[in-house]
Amino acid sequence: xSAGTHQTGGTGxxxxxxxxxxxxxxxxxxxxxxxxxxxxxxxxxWNFGAILTFMLVLMIMTGVFLAMQYTPHTSLxxxxxxxxxxxxNFGWLLRYLHANxxxxxxxxxxxxxxxxxxxGSYKGPRELLWMLGVVIFLLMxxxxxxxxxxxxxxxxxxxxxxxxxxxxxxxxxxxxxxTLLWGGFSVDNPTLNRxxxxxxxxxxxxxxxxxxxxxxxxxxxxxxPLGVDPKGPQDTVPFHPYYTxxxxxxxxxxxxIMAAFVFFAPNFFGEPENYLEAAPLVTPAxxxxxxxxxxxxxxxxxxDFNIWFIDAKxxxxxxxxxxxxxxxxxxxxxxxxxxxxxxxxxxxxxFWILLLDCIVLGxxxxxxxxDPVVAGVEWFKVIHLGYITTFWYFFHFLILLPLLxxxxxxxxxxxxxxEAVLGGRTPGATANAKQMEKA
Amino acid sequence: xxxDTQDHDGSRRDFLYLSAGAFGAVGLGAALWPxxxxxxxxxxxLALSTTEVDISQIEVGxxxxxxxxxxxxxxxxxxxxxxxxxxxxxxxxxxxxxxDADRVAQPDWLVVVGVCTHLGCVPKGQKPSEKxxxxxxxxxxxxxxxxxxxxRIRQGPAPLNLPVPPYKFLNDTNIKxx
Lengths: 439, 178
Known about the structure:
A: Cytochrome Bc1 Complex, Chain C, two-stranded antiparallel sheet, 63% helix, B: alpha+beta, 9 strands
């Protein structure tokens, strides 16, 4: 990434030229990360791609070094984690970075995904780019889940038990699949061992899909807050130094916030129950997943009734996987040709309602279903709120979005990025912008 | 390859492609089999699949938990009241209809796997201090499933009764589970 100065094909030092003519890594970096033309109107929400890349590297780094100290055995795992905390040099830092890193990785990916939804980044020609992103999200969820099992605390064990049991809902072969996943008849040492192996493997799969995600991005080019395609060089700037600098600023802010948690509230997002060693005969009174899974957990629990021949258990599992499935087909559910919600007066509102819905789902997922939502109002329980929010989630994607594409009347789009950016949206200023372009 | 003068319609070549493809697919499947099979329970795990329990110290009305295949097994020496409740239940009221007689070897003793059939939590009710649910059996705190004194599901999201493990009475004071 150093090469701001030499041109494609290499006017760098002799060694760089020698290598580049045999293996074009330098010209590739130059072309894809320095000269790469990006729309000039990115806002701060476009920082999160770079932030996520940083987080993936941080998680792999801390993870590899933690793995050097960790023992994946049911009788030793819990103690080996405590040893990391107490005896290993900077073990506490590695572990807290890794644990809080997972949280901030998910914060970043959720912002990145909602950014994509607000600005219509999933729409043609970026459908595959979006779908690869959903694949990365799924792999991240699997990785985070298996990582959470490794400390072998009570929540590790019971979380693993509940989640692997989801597969028993599959008709006919469900129980055999669960036995295959466990390598036994309950979550036990073979399970812990394979989760460790897979937890180490999956980040590299994520890395591979991230590369595909970036390749796809560099074919279509980035979306932007206006959602209109760049018309020419007047609408773009080279990625370096403009966005390398802007990304660095955003990254610094993001990492500062994460560091505040790592150093001053490292267990803020954790569950105290997980500092008790796993006990296969004692279920904790209230099993909750990590916060980043709560909305999906809420959807799982909210289907507690049979739907025709589908029993409640299978229904809940289908709804939970379906909630991610709708993201896969989102590019085809949203029929509106306009990308950015800034020009979609109705969708804009429903976007914010969806965001609120997901936050409420998160609340629902963290509470016992039988509790009243407001203390004292006994007829309105958490499960009822779960029904409403789960319904709304699917209603938004499956009914609202296709209908909005037909009935919504979008606002007029600006003619180009530079017109909107330099001239605002008033007609007088537009003329001004054109003069500036000529100059 | 050469220009084929014999095989004008290409059917022989198609056959070769298809058969080579089929062999390849079968070969790949056969090569994957050991990998998948290695994830299933190994011989040492299977070897630990039976448990013997001395039940002579269990009083009437007392419930005991033992570990079998890594899972809790509930052994309940039922009271006459619990037995009569279990036996008099109308099968129409059950989600997973089973008579009590089908679930016990001797009416005094109920032996069930203590794993909720919803998502695998261990239901409460083994200790006298614990909540036993609306039917006096077990109550799963995870998602509020209620089981009766025969371990049958009565209310909540769980689809099935608590499973009865294979077991037999070796004599009056010992049972072998598995």
